[in-house]
Amino acid sequence: MGGSIAGLFAARVLSDRARKVVIVEPDDTSAQAQSRSGVPQDQQVHTLLPAGRRWIERWLPGVSQEAQDRGASLVGPDKQFVGYDDIRQAPDGVDHQFLAVGRPLLETLVRDRVTALPHVSVLRAQATGLRYGDGAVTGVRFAEAATDDQGTRTEGVLAADFVVDAMGRSSKLSHWLGQDGYDQPRLERLAAPVNYATALFERPAKFPELEVATVLQLFTPQYPSGGVSVAAATAIEGQQWLVMLMGYGDNRPGRTIDEFRAKCATLPPNFSEITSGDVTRDVVTYHQAESRRRHFTEAGRLPARLVSMGDAVASFNPVYGQGMSSAALHASCLASYLDSGADLDEVATEFLRLQQVVVDAAWAVSAGGDAARIYAENGTEVPEEMRQQRRAMEQITGAALIDAEVSGAFNKVSYMLRHPSTLFDPALLAKAAAAAEGATAT
Ligand SMILES: Cc1cc2nc3c(=O)[nH]c(=O)nc-3n(C[C@H](O)[C@H](O)[C@H](O)COP(=O)(O)OP(=O)(O)OC[C@H]3O[C@@H](n4cnc5c(N)ncnc54)[C@H](O)[C@@H]3O)c2cc1C
Fold it and tell me: Is the shortest distance between the CB of 311 and ligand 1 below 6 Å?
């Protein structure tokens, strides 16, 4: 249920293990690389972290090359600027490659490859509920998206041995489970009021030294740069810069091109130049009030033969760029679970356990920062444990600007290649503290 990134990854994994895979998706996805209503965030910048790219290449080898053939860029460290204010993070000596591509094109490339697999098909319909038998899900109730001449929608039940909920952060699965006598997973919400504004600009060939991904994070509490906390510019297909500005709370990065450019003029190091080209798509804004996760592991009574993946389980503060890579890691959990020989007539506990490790790790990175910000903004006292963690993180991010080893450890966690607990290794913390002290002394 759901044919976006998480649903497509699930279908890819299931295609190796099932006779028939049906993706139930209401949107018409036949148009190539077009924005669509089921994914309202798809006009905003979408960074595919190295963890996500690794999985995509494993399951769909050559997708990065196909993206490049369509004008996207695969950008190595020499053409990236990742920094805090105008200070560039220390290079870690690892060839991290970012695929700079518009989200609709990336989704199209993944969809074309997945739906070309011999036993994968798409049912253009909205999932409306589940059918059960003997404590397990046995089918998906649906209403076809298209209507007949009389305006009637065909409804039906699609029989299924295994069902994946990939309906995104507004998934109705919990509601259905509650209605059908099962437990509703607890919904955890964390205020993270992000305001995005993204526009596209012509990218003349005058930036050869910065082919892609300028990511700039302004963590100064007083938001001096016109309220912009994060700014990113990505050289995507069509010789364009996809430029995103993000502000928290009441800080809105602007709705018009003039406002947008005015904010960019305050940003180091070269956002002014980047946004000086002709506008190829006007500013599109997006607001998200909170991060959310659903605690399936805590639910006592769930049906068998059902799992949830992607944003339907956890949808994070998007500036950390974790969503698509999380979906890929959930799909990898699904592959491990199905290959473990688990009894499918039992609740997918082992899958939930694996997935929780992934969700906890991503949540620790993004929600940790947001929780500390909320305490700071409210002027309330930060709990001791969190205070220590934030202090350690501040030392690590500070040291990452000057020390290659700390920068490498930090990147591996930010890019979802390593668990965040690796950052709390005492030797690394000592190195970070020493680097920070050295920087202060000089
Ligand atoms: C502003 C913003 C910026 C982001 N930036 C990044 C980024 O830089 N990097 C990154 O990795 N992630 C980013 N994300 C997150 C990313 O968009 C998602 O994690 C990603 O799309 C995977 O989500 P998904 O497939 O679980 O759900 P979605 O992409 O939300 O898709 C849900 C799908 O379910 C379908 N659906 C809904 N209801 C039904 C139904 N009843 N029946 C059948 N189908 C249904 C919808 O049509 C849609 O296709 C960002 C998100 C936002 C909001």
Answer: yes
